[in-house]
Amino acid sequence: MATRTASKGTGVRNKGSREAKADEVVAPAVVEAPTDAPPGRTDPELLIRASVLLADAALAAKQAGAEMTAATFSWRVGLNALKRPLWAFGALASTARALTNPGGLGFTANGGVLGETTRSAAALARLRSTPVSMAVDAFAMRIEAAAIEHPNLAAPLAKDLTDALVAGKRLDALRAARRLVDLMGVTRTLTTVSPVLMELFALIALLDENPANDDFAWVTLAGGVPTTDPFLGLPAGLVRQLNPGPGRAERADPDAILERCLARSSNEIVSYIDDIAALGNHGLALLRRIRCTDGSERHVLLLPGTSFGLLRNSTTQDLVGAFDGALRTDTTYTRAVKQLLVRSGVPVGSDLMIVGHSLGGITAMNLATDLDLVSTYRLTHIVTVGSPIDNKRPADPDTQVISLVNKYDVIPNLDGRGPSSPNDIPEHWVELAWLDDTYDYPLSHAPQSYSGTLRNAMPQHREHVNALITAYDGEIVGNQPYLLLDK
Amino acid sequence: MTVLHDPTESREPATARPLENVLFGAALAAQRIPWIDAPARALGLTPLTRESLTRQLMSHLKGSTSGRPVRLHTPFGAYLAPLDADDAADLLARAHDAGALGRADHLTPEGRRHPVAPHAAVPVPPAFLRDVHALAAQEAAHLIAARHADATVSWEDWCTVAGRLARRVVLGEAAAEDTLLGDLLAAAGSAEDAHEYTERAAALHRRLARHLRDGGGLVDVAEATGEETAAAVEHTLDLLTQATTHTARQALALLAVQPALPAPSVRERAEAAVDEALRRYPPRAATSYEVLAPFRWHDVSIEAGTDVLCATAWLNALAEGPGAAPSLCAVPGECEAADLAVFTARALVTALAEAVEPVVLAPRLDPDDLPTSLPPATLSVALVAADGSATPAPSAEPAPAPAQGRTPAHYAALTRQSAHSLEEHAQRLAECARDSGWNHDAVGERSRMLLLAHAERCRRAAADVRNAARWLAH
């Protein structure tokens, strides 16, 4: 069941979020998102609530269809039918009517081999069942709600695009996208639609003739990690075949720029993000040893994000690795990091904090789900910067998750939890979000953009994070880069 | 006791003949292929099922060796197998007293060996047991609240609640939501070898250390008596988790299919069901024990290095009459941790039986011919309210996919619930459409009309599905 628990529009999402809002500092280009609809407009909260009800109804209708499909094709029911043909006629007629009544469930056969074959045939024939109609309308309401918070989405050309996708008119959608790109350029177009990107992908998956990708839409509706891609419906397991390798970590020497940056490091979130930026995206990660003020030795891992040069390279920080990390939890990046920890001799039972940007944040969360890792080390904090992590949960309920999100950035929304998604994060997570439209994507996603915002426009968020990681205050006694490779 | 006693002369254990070795190896192999006797079951040829053939083999071995333990050589290892439950308990007790009993390994039907946590129990005062009933009642309420539309509780939800009950009893409220503790315990229990077990156990001890410092639950009692150790807490937590996750669920199924158990009150029926579940389906169906030093049991000399195989489930099936339920603890003798585990399982089953009526949906159980294994993960037990209705509170988790190949009555129950659910959704959509918040603009009015249209479709769908349910129920 889809749920909605957190309030929209606050910069800080956790218990006691009201205090943070009271002493915000707002710079001209960076604002907290508006909380109320303009007068004379439908309240976005009402739209979200309605979308949740529609989503629940869609899932219930789909479940009813699955149950009756199972009844229709059950061999035991067939055996009964042979013994009692009159009953069989009545039962079959009633289930067939229930499964096909256009005023009721529509064509809703699904589940089991025969059910899925029937559903696939219906998808090819573009027969829209009631659950699908409800799901489409639920997504449409989410898009309407997002358009209130992001006025660019309500602009005519963007509206043409979203309306065409809601109607299932792909050619019209392509034309609208083309017009948008002609007017705004690719990066501004991406930034414009990014708040509802997952909803648009889900609509494409649901309304095309390919039945294999429908699961993507249902997972986006209900919340969770997709098991297929939204276009071809390729299973997540296939991505693993494209990203093979046991993962390996090799000690590396820092170059002069990195060395200068590391010399200025401190236990401070802006410093960590600057260090990640200095590491670059060519496979490096950093292990820092800190002799803390309480006498303990603790460790911090810094994990950078994806290199966009090639689809695949020899390091763990490539595009294929990013897809792998989004869909699964055991990847070459996580395996290489685990090898790094063993290789570097981090003692068993040590306190560990992981700070990751983009794919690095996804990997941090994937590591947090790994029972082997959390049973070997005590993962106290995960700090993610611009990472889509909201659909995964750490194995240790005591791990403090801190998520830094620029709502103008495309990437954090790719976990299906956009501004109008009803699915929320656990109460004890800390999500610090703001709207910085200084740069379009991809600059809005760069770690330098995040560190700049925290340094200048959002010092309260900087202080908030620093207050949560004081256990790692102390003297840095080791900064060691490692090169992480797939094989 | 069937073994003759000669105080003057010791002898080697009897050795099975080659054909007996082959048959025993085949019986072990058949455990790994659950479907191997599916044709015999489908045709009703009970004497040709795995259980019957194994029972016949064990009877033969018992008869040919006069009931003495027999040495068996199989492709899966060489074992000394007692052929009587009492002999097995007595032999292990003798080995334990002689200091010859080494590591115990749990042997799964799939052929895997998992080291068993060593015995180390904490005395439990009677006053502590009152709290167990209260905790069990609270967790039973959570189980009832977690039911799906067909009134069943998924295996995952059951394990979550049962694990939490075990943690609350042993470690107190602070550990209730520490799911990592449960994961580490499960990982230790499924370790492939001693090395992995040692690492997993060490991780578990590190995690337990904080709870031991903070106190709560049994830890406070242990401190009061001065006998607190991490090993004792781990052992107790392990046994309680097994009893609440596995045995309690199986007991519910037995309670459902054996209403004629000779016990008048709900509590007595529940307790009898738990004992029956332990006797028929011990959590460790087979355990092997390493003998570290030679010892003598009656007139039989057991050498060091021998692997003693206690096929508890097979021995129980062979026994004439019900017999005593085996202990949850792998080590023979009194174990207060095992007693507390059984007590907690009984409390949980009692609390559930007092609130709801269990109904077994799958597999089909014949009270006169119960299966020799009943994996709790595959059990589907509905918890139906006393008035026969099965309307649960809405669950936050998506309903599981309906099982294939069931009877019309099963689907009738499911679809009846779905019709009810669709009616509720129709009402909620219509109620949302009545909200005055839609009055402000065209988007709002369009949304209202969409909600009303979908409410109407849900209503019609509910009527169609209810009609189909009626036909299926005929």
TrEMBL record, chain B:
InterPro entries: Cyt_P450_sf (IPR036396). This is Uncharacterized protein. It comes from the Bacteria. GO terms for molecular function: heme binding; iron ion binding; monooxygenase activity; oxidoreductase activity, acting on paired donors, with incorporation or reduction of molecular oxygen. It comes from Streptomyces finlayi. Gene3D superfamilies: Cytochrome P450. Residues 389-408 are annotated as: Disordered.
